[in-house]
Write a structure and sequence with these properties.
It contains seven helices and 13 strands. The protein is globular and about 45 Å long. The longest helix is centred in the middle third of the chain and has 23 residues. The protein is of the alpha+beta class and 250 residues long. Helix 1 runs parallel beside helix 6. The strands form three sheets. Strands 8, 9, 10, 11, 12 and 13 form a six-stranded antiparallel β-sheet that branches. The protein has a five-stranded antiparallel β-sheet with strand order 1-2-3-7-6. Strands 4-5 form a two-stranded antiparallel sheet. Helices cover 31% and strands 30% of the residues. The structure holds cytidine-5'-monophosphate. The site of cytidine-5'-monophosphate has 13 residues, from strand 9, helix 2, strand 11 and strand 13.
């Protein structure tokens, strides 16, 4: 299969993905790399197979979103690690949904670790490394000029819907969706679309029986040798043999 990627047309290089201009003006090609970072990029390692696993998991999860009425950036997974996606004007907000308290929320506030949030807690952080992704409120987000109140209302509604779909999806394969981060952008008509990626890099996932971590938290805690096994576990539970045929893998 021809990869419609032109390395001279690199539009953006993130910490784990590179974004290239696609053949069509309104499309981009996203390359999932093996790079893994933690602590604002302070630690960086290459994890063999990570780009492969995440690109397929992300395509599969975005397909499930579409089936449930959430519009995503996905056009097609051309081949493992290479995704054609709609070009979006990204909103610099990390929308975080928490079903269980852990991570930064228990470091910043007096929540006891592992306390369930009911209803789920939605947090928005300003995506800007220079400012270390500070937590936003609606007034600050609007004053920064990055969103309107209508946008914020839509982001919250979409985040809750994504949480509902994904919590069920993971529950069905014996995984607890603890929390996750998503990002949105606007298409050329101004519609808010789910973009970036959803993968074990951007979620906290616990095995429902053992409560073992199956996500990037292992890397944050320095358990580098357990990372790929955990991602493979999620992959094996979520990606069916039929999916593998569709993605051209075996
Ligand atoms: O670190 P924190 O507890 O705020 O993370 C909440 C959730 O958001 C976790 O699932 C984490 O993987 C995700 N996250 C992310 N990218 C960031 C910050 C958080 O994917 N820059």
């Amino acid at each position: 299969m021809m990869i419609k990627m032109n390395s001279e047309k690199l539009l953006y290089e993130g910490k784990a993905k590179s974004v290239f201009q696609g053949e069509n003006d309104d499309e981009v090609i996203i390359k999932f790399r093996d790079d893994m970072t933690a602590g604002d990029g302070a630690r960086k390692e290459s994890m063999n197979q990570k780009g492969y696993l995440n690109s397929i998991l992300c395509a599969k999860i975005f397909e499930i979103m579409e089936e449930n009425g959430v519009k995503t950036q996905l056009v097609e997974l051309n081949e493992p690690c290479v995704m054609t996606a709609k070009k979006l004007d990204m909103i610099p907000i990390e929308v975080i949904v928490r079903n269980i308290a852990t991570g930064s929320i228990v470091r910043k506030f007096p929540f006891e670790d592992k306390t369930p949030f009911n209803p789920p807690l939605i947090q928005m952080d300003f995506k800007d490394d220079e400012y270390h992704d500070p937590m936003l409120n609606d007034a600050i987000a609007k004053a920064l000029g990055i969103v309107t109140q209508e946008d914020l209302d839509q982001l919250r509604a979409l985040a809750l819907k994504v949480n509902e779909i994904m919590s069920k999806m993971f529950k069905d394969i014996g995984i607890i969706l603890v929390d996750f981060k998503i990002e949105f952008g606007k298409d050329k008509d101004g519609n808010i679309i789910l973009g970036d990626e959803i993968s074990p890099d951007s979620c906290r996932l616990w095995d429902a029986e053992t409560l073992d971590m199956l996500d990037k938290e292992l890397f944050r805690q320095g358990k580098d040798d357990e990372v790929i096994d955990a991602y493979e576990e999620v992959f094996n539970r979520l990606v069916s043999d039929e999916d593998k045929v569709r993605y051209g893998i075996n």
